[in-house]
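A protein record pairs a chain with a discrete description of its three-dimensional fold. The following entry can be read in just this way.
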Amino acid sequence: MIHLDLPSSLSPRLSQGHPWVYRNHVSDAPPIESGTWVQVRSGSFTAYGLWDDHSA
């Protein structure tokens, strides 16, 4: 599984249930095929989601 680190400043918003992580929040992501499961981390917050290479 690919692990992506997000800015820790996003942690409060994500912890409150904000459902989206935008492309500009992810820095240095390797090429990822759409539909791949990823783990995202922001501070102490961790979540899992599907990567969409054609999304915002």
Observations:
- The mean pLDDT is 91.
- The helical segments are 11-15.
- Residues 2-50 form one domain.
